[in-house]
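It would be a great kindness if you could assist me with a short task in structural biology. A protein sequence and the structure tokens that stand for its backbone fold form the material at issue. I should value your view on which stretches of the chain appear to form regular backbone elements. The record follows directly beneath this note.
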Amino acid sequence: MAKQKEETKALATYGEWTPEQMEKEAKEISTGGDFWKAPVGNTSVRFLPPKVGWPSPFVIQYQHFIRMPGVERQIIFCCPRQHAQKPCMSCKRADVLETSGNARDEKMAKQLRPQKRIMANVIVSPKDVTAKVQIWTFGSKVFQQLKAIREDDDGGGNFLDPIKGFNIVVKRVGTGKDDTTYTLIPSRTVGPLANMDWIENQQDLRRQIRLPNEDQQERLLEGEDPRDVWGDARSYEGKSKKGSDDDIDGASVIDVEETPSTPPGNKRTAEDDLFDDEVELE
């Protein structure tokens, strides 16, 4: 009898993780926040057209991915030389190595050069009118697939058209950086965006490009925690406390006109999204 009472008491305080709740949480994990990470399997997304005045729906960023002895994680930062013609310690080191005539140095120089990453505003779960605009950061292989779809009048077309566009199915296979592949498939269903406000709610992706000054580059290359290196630069609102338009605690931010869609106090930038298993380099 006592045992039965104990079992009844345990049941009264023991919850259940239902399949429905499991799916709900899985969706929140893969789609929550400003940055989207494609989960394994098939996911339909809708790419948003550029706002008036934007030259493209895509923004290219040049990022360094550097492995340093004794540093556990890759060192990642946007290239000041490529983006703003400012000094870049990694590129400078690569310049020296390339002139040595040594094959090993040339290989190391290549590893120090920046890689291209592309950002785009997308809608995950495009049928949901309450869905949030998110940013997807991907490599050149995904971009080439998008370009091929756009140029294919028979099997693809203008997927960016807000009225006659269509979803793109992102098929991800693999979980590691060496075995992960993405295949993009155009949807056969053509139709308008479920919510036209999404176009105006996009983030200006150029605001995600943050450039370290020389002191910050040195600290990053020495393996210092990026959170300490960037400091308050992570919570910029378009201007620094010192009043400069393009220098936040010494960290340069691409100078663009601020728009209502630029979230104040944005504490995440594109390189934050790269500390995972899906970094796809050229």
